[in-house]
Design a protein that fits this description.
By secondary structure, the protein is an alpha+beta fold. The protein has six helices and twelve strands. The radius of gyration is 21 Å and the shape is globular.
């Protein structure tokens, strides 16, 4: 990795993201003790303004979305599952209770049916205050499914004992990845502070990142060799930088 770079490529399963920075990014940069202390003080709720709290919350939403989206795009998915909770069995208003139930089902399912199961799961905070979960799954062919009543392509998971489920086969993996992000909201992040906001299996593929320090001539020569389908420019006021983003099919 160069000491500083102005170009980063991120390879997902079916696409390539190219970031071109107006100003070089230092590699391996670490915060000083003074910077860390400043950030700790800024994170103190009692000393923050409402605007700072709102900014912090939005930053948390963005970080979670970016992480989930990157992991989702780096893998192929087969099924989209939804998990709800029967109030008679699990307090669906209690985040700790629903996450414990979900984890129990995941652990039992991996042990009994799908040792190589891959997944990434996000919670949904319903308007009622109840929690649901939605997940992308793969390598789950041995998990039992039954066709839903009156349905032709919506299934249920009979091994899930905590409430109602749906399971549908994924036809467009990238679109389904984007769909999952809508559940990651400021309201969700506000009610789950210091708690997990997504679940992922350890066997997921990760995006492949590479950094370069390229001249303009070399950069655009390389850009001409890929099939760019989308381009946008993002200003980053906090770092006084501008990023040109190019997305290409692979």
């Amino acid at each position: 990795m160069p000491e500083s770079y102005n170009t980063k490529t991120i390879e997902y399963n079916n696409s390539l993201l190219v970031k071109r920075y107006a100003h070089n990014i230092k590699s391996g940069y670490k915060l000083s003790a003074a910077d860390k202390d400043s950030r700790r003080r800024k994170s103190d709720k009692d000393s923050r303004t409402p605007q700072q709290i709102e900014h912090c919350l939005q930053s948390s939403v963005n970080r979670t979305k970016n992480t989930v989206y990157a992991l989702a795009l780096a893998n192929n998915w087969e099924w989209f599952y939804t998990f709800t909770f029967d109030p008679a069995k699990v307090d669906s208003y209690n985040y700790d209770a629903v996450t414990k139930a979900l984890k129990t089902w995941l652990d039992d399912t991996r042990r009994m049916y799908a040792p190589n199961m891959r997944y990434i799961i996000v919670p949904e905070l319903h308007e009622s205050g109840r929690y649901h979960f939605h997940g992308l799954f793969a390598d789950v062919d041995k998990i039992p499914v039954v066709l839903g009543a009156g349905q032709s392509d919506i299934y249920n998971l009979p091994t899930y004992d905590y409430g109602y489920t749906t399971a549908s086969k994924i036809r467009d993996s990238d679109s389904t990845c984007s769909y999952c992000l809508k559940y990651i909201t400021k309201e969700l992040c506000a009610t789950t502070q210091n708690k997990k906001r997504y679940w992922r299996s350890r066997n997921l593929s990760k995006p492949r990142e590479t950094t370069y320090n390229l001249s303009n001539e070399d950069f655009y020569e390389q850009l001409d060799n890929i099939d760019v389908v989308y381009t946008k420019t993002v200003d980053v006021p906090a770092s006084h930088n501008r990023i040109n983003i190019h997305i290409a099919d692979m």
